[in-house]
């Protein structure tokens, strides 16, 4: 049975190894889909609805078609169809330059008859609200879950809290917008450069869409500029690009505009929770009753976790979805968790305060995770928890400091479905090939580390080929923090098999049995006689014309799901401006065996910063008057910039020697930690995200 | 008014053409840099008037190499770098600078113009004539990486890497001005650049390391 071995025996695994793609990324050589320039390539753009709800009366493409430089114009809807959100596709053009494509969009005449719309949850749920879907009402049937005896729980409760928590819609803001470059090499063979998290998923989708065999579609994603859960399929823009390629016989580049990226490329649904919860005098959560909803746009669900992490014996939850005339939600980094954590961790602190208990102690009583119990101790020490205000808001001066804590959990245990090959060539070179994709998490480097560790080489000796369906070695999409845990076992077993084969070639030369051979640094030696060695290149030289090329297999024992995380925040709130500055985050993140400690820390930093953005800055603002998104750009939709970045102390809490993914979990506990720290600083609770200066000032004014 | 006309009046009538009629050609003429030599290109016609769009053949000095390229008045420097085709028919293909926000909000397209950081999406190609343009591809000295580039690799200051070229150029510009910036000065110097993966803490570390080696 394979194992990752003892930490003390690892030469590379668990160390800080720089990214293989580093040099390409810092010199501008790294080619993203958006950077692909093909001979004769055309630029395509999509005309989108600028209203929230309308019937298409007429589309006239003729003037656009007549514009010199335009090579194709195609409708994406037709008269009589209903457009149900701003940004929905109307028509597409392909032209010799991007500027001509822009001009051509302006020459498309569209007549729309506007329909009543709702773009906010409140409007959608109002009495006499226009019903915006003919297949279902604005509100879905509630999903109800009841366990234990909630009534009895409340009777036992010494304290109760009743509160409403809200998180608005957040958008992914992938810096490389969704898009593709498509090229038909003949009528039955399609090559697609795709900005995707799922090379093989996209391949299979195109094959179905154009009714061609899957092995005649090649999808390439050498580098990818951010997905965060929104890039699993080609979408309308991908299908349109391939269709325009077919019509024109030329390569097409079609990337979404920044505005369209906000409008149609996915978002994290909103959440509103009306909660009543109770705790016993000895600090046990005894009752939880929640009614909540969210909007994920016109047709998608808006799930969230409630209650979250902490155990409540008696609980009742009722959740429903609210449809609005807005682009659909897609999975976004730990779907349902961060907003659920914000509400639950806020609630926990509110209960603790009523009990007169330290919020950390209250968590210890109600948290059954042994890992988090250890993390609470570690994190509290690191942040200096004893320094917090025992009476919230009791600090003096204009700028008040406070501390808070939050928790999270995730799976990330990987799964079957990856094929990989490790090849050793006679000249000593090594290749590792699999159809996964490096979306910025560093899987390319993790693969190199695993193979190099097994073969006694350096990671830079390994040529890693990912992000290409061409070699026909499928792997799953990069979602659910599953990539490393899915890929690592297969790569590891493939490298082990290749090593075994090499030993078989070397054994006669060393006059030793195969199982007495070991790998050293660029050498193979005999365990019972360490002076009996061959160099790596002497060994591979024995291969002659025949390279070794071995596949791997899914090995349950090399991976494990289920991670816990805890974060502590220290903030400073300016009581005159309402500005919240996060000073420090301590992120204690359970992550199993971190193949590469350096990139694991990057993931933790990234999660914390995205969580910080959701807590303090990010909100999709819809105008109830016009039905339009008011901040579909990067100036008014705020993502964290340099000034928002606190000191981040990431503690890689690797509790076992099995691989677990860590891409999503670090973005979860941040929200509760910061929100609770704000309360600890100013003594007023803000239950609605993002915690912006206006809300802070209003809350302070109401308190005073 | 006929019923049909009434219906049209009631509905939203997105006629982009009538909008453009008012602003189209004037813009083209007004933004032509005086240095440019205008040459008519009969195959390109203005969308509204069917009049030929004026284009100009200009020279740009990018990374110490001269590019001969035909541009419209509205062509941005970023568009030349990324999508431009020179008069020989070759792509300029300097795709390190990225178009991310398209309106000077994110710094993804930052290049050096005469040593100063500039958003290439906000500069017209014609205005870049006669200036020394350095893109991320021109930051290294041949195979020898700039200390900023080395430090970015060492500190893992890129994840997806899409914003990285902009940060590299801005960091070089910052260190050219201020050899030993404090953390606050690093945050100031890079405040015009946006990252979504959250590489900031390691970028700060990288700039600090680079400053020690410069």
Main features:
heterodimer; A: 704 residues; Aldehyde Oxidoreductase, domain 4; 3 domains; five-stranded mixed β-sheet; 17 helices; B: 214 residues; alpha+beta; six-stranded mixed β-sheet; 34% helix
Fold and architecture overview:
- The complex is a heterodimer of chains A (704) and B (214).
- By secondary structure, chain A is an alpha+beta fold.
- Chain A has 3 domains: 7-30 and 414-558, 2-Layer Sandwich (Aldehyde Oxidoreductase, domain 4), CATH 3.30.365.10; 33-115 and 178-255, Aldehyde oxidase/xanthine dehydrogenase, a/b hammerhead (Aldehyde Oxidoreductase, domain 3, Alpha-Beta Complex), CATH 3.90.1170.50; 267-412 and 560-703, 2-Layer Sandwich (Aldehyde Oxidoreductase, domain 4).
- Helices cover 28% and strands 25% of the residues of chain A.
- Chain A contains 17 helices and 28 strands.
- Chain A has a 7-stranded mixed β-sheet with strand order 3-5-1-13-10-11-12, sandwiched between helices. Chain A has a 5-stranded mixed β-sheet with strand order 7-17-16-15-8. In chain A, strands 18-26-27-28 form a 4-stranded mixed β-sheet, sandwiched between helices.
- In chain A, helix 12 (443-455) links the parallel strand 20 (430-434) and strand 21.
- In chain A, helix 9 (337-355) runs parallel beside helix 16.
- Chain A is flat and about 85 Å long.
- The N and C termini of chain A lie far apart (66 Å).
- The model of chain A has no long low-confidence stretch (mean pLDDT 97).
- Chain B is of the alpha+beta class.
- Chain B has 7 helices and 7 strands, in the order H-E-H-E-E-E-H-E-E-E-H-H-H-H.
- Chain B has helices at residues 3-10, 16-30, 77-83, 147-154, 164-177, 183-189, 200-213, and strands spanning 12-15, 38-45, 52-62, 65-72, 110-113, 116-119, 132-134.
- In chain B, strands 2, 3, 4, 5, 6 and 7 form a 6-stranded mixed β-sheet that branches.
- In chain B, a hairpin with a 2-residue loop joins strand 5 and strand 6 (116-119).
- In chain B, helix 4 (147-154) crosses helix 7 (200-213).
- The longest helix of chain B has 15 residues, at 16-30.
- Chain B starts with a helix and ends with a helix.
- Chains A and B meet through helix 1, helix 3, strand 6 and helix 15 of A and helix 1, strand 1, helix 2, strand 2 and helix 3 of B.
- Strand 6 of chain A pairs antiparallel with strand 1 of chain B, so a sheet runs across the interface.
């Amino acid at each position: 049975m394979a194992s990752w071995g003892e930490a003390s025996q690892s030469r590379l695994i668990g160390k800080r190894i720089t990214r293989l793609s580093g040099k390409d990324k810092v010199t501008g050589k790294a080619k993203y889909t958006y950077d692909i320039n093909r001979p004769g390539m055309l630029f395509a753009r999509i005309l989108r609805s600028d209203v929230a709800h309308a019937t298409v009366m007429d589309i006239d493409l003729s003037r656009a078609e007549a514009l010199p430089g335009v090579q194709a114009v195609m409708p994406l809807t037709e008269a009589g169809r209903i457009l149900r959100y701003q940004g929905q596709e109307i028509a597409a053009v392909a032209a010799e330059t991007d500027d001509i494509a822009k001009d051509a969009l302006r020459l498309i005449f569209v007549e729309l008859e506007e329909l009543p719309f709702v773009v906010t949850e409140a409007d959608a749920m109002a009495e006499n609200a226009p019903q915006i879907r003919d297949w279902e009402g604005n509100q879905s049937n509630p999903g109800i879950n009841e366990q234990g005896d909630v009534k009895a729980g409340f009777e036992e409760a010494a304290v109760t809290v009743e509160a409403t928590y809200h998180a608005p819609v957040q958008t992914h803001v992938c810096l490389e917008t969704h898009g593709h470059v498509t090229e038909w090499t003949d009528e039955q063979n399609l090559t697609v450069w795709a900005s995707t998290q799922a090379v093989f998923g996209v391949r299979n989708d195109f094959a179905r869409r154009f009714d061609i065999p899957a092995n005649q579609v090649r999808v390439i994603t050498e580098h990818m500029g951010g997905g965060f859960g929104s890039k699993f399929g080609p979408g309308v823009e991908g299908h349109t690009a391939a269709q325009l390629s077919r019509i024109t016989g030329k390569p097409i580049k079609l990337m979404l505009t920044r505005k369209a990226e906000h409008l149609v490329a996915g978002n994290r649904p909103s959440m509103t929770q009306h909660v009543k919860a109770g705790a016993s005098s000895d600090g046990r959560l005894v009752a939880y009753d929640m009614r909540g909803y969210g909007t994920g746009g016109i047709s998608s669900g808006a799930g969230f976790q409630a209650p979250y992490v902490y155990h409540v014996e008696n609980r009742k939850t009722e959740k429903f979805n609210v449809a609005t005339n807005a682009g659909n939600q897609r999975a976004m980094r730990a779907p349902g968790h961060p907003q659920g954590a914000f509400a639950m961790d806020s609630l926990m602190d509110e209960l603790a305060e009523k009990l007169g208990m330290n919020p950390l102690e209250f968590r210890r009583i109600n948290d059954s995770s042994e890992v988090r119990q250890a993390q609470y101790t570690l994190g509290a020490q690191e942040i200096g928890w004893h320094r917090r205000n025992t009476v919230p808001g009791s600090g003096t001066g204009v700028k008040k400091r406070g501390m808070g804590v939050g928790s999270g959990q995730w799976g990330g245990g990987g799964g079957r479905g990856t094929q990989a090959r490790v090849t050793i060539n006679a000249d000593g070179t090594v290749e590792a090939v699999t159809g996964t994709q490096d979306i910025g998490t560093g899987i390319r480097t993790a693969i190199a580390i695993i193979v190099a560790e097994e073969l006694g080489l350096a990671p830079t000796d390994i040529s890693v080929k990912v992000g290409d369906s061409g070699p026909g070695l499928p792997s799953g999409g990069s979602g659910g923090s599953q990539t490393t845990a899915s890929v690592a076992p297969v790569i590891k077993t493939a490298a082990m098999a290749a090593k075994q084969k090499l030993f078989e070639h070397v054994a006669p030369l060393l006059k030793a049995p195969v199982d007495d051979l070991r790998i050293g640094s660029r050498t193979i030696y005999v365990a019972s006689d360490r002076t009996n060695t061959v160099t790596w290149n002497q060994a591979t030289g024995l291969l002659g014309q025949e390279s070794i090329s071995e596949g791997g297999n899914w090995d349950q024992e090399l991976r494990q799901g289920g991670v816990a995380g805890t974060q502590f925040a220290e903030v400073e709130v300016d009581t005159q401006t309402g500005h919240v500055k996060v000073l420090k985050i301590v992120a204690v993140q359970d992550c199993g065996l971190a193949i590469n400690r350096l990139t694991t820390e990057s993931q933790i930093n990234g999660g914390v910063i995205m969580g910080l953005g959701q807590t303090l800055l990010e909100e999709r603002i819809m105008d109830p008057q016009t039905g339009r998104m008011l901040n579909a750009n990067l100036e008014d939709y705020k993502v964290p910039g340099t000034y928002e970045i606190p000191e981040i102390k990431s503690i890689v809490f690797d509790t076992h020697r099995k691989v677990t993914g860590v891409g999503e979990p670090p973005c979860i506990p941040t929200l509760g930690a910061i929100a609770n720290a704000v309360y600890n600083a100013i003594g007023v609770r803000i239950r609605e995200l993002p915690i912006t200066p206006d809300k802070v000032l209003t809350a302070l004014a109401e308190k005073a | 008014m006929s019923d049909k006309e009434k219906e049209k009046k009631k509905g939203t009538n997105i006629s982009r053409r009538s909008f453009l009629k008012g602003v189209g050609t004037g813009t083209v003429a007004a933004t032509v840099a005086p240095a440019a030599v205008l040459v008519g290109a009969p195959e390109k016609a203005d969308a509204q008037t069917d009049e030929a769009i004026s284009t100009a053949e200009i020279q740009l000095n990018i990374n110490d190499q001269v590019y001969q390229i035909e541009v419209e008045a509205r062509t941005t420097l970023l568009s030349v770098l990324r999508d431009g085709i020179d008069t020989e028919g070759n792509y300029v293909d300097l795709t390190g600078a990225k178009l991310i926000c398209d309106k000077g909000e994110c710094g993804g397209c930052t290049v050096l113009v005469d040593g100063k950081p500039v958003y290439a999406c906000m500069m017209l190609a014609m205005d870049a004539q006669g200036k020394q343009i350095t893109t991320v591809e021109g930051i290294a000295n041949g195979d020898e990486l700039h200390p900023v580039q080395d430090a970015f690799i060492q500190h893992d200051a890129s994840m997806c890497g899409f914003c990285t070229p902009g940060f590299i150029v801005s960091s070089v510009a910052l260190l050219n001005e201020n050899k030993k910036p404090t953390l606050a000065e690093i945050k100031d110097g890079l405040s015009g650049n946006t990252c979504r993966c959250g590489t900031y803490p390691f970028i700060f570390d990288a700039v600090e390391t680079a400053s020690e080696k410069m």
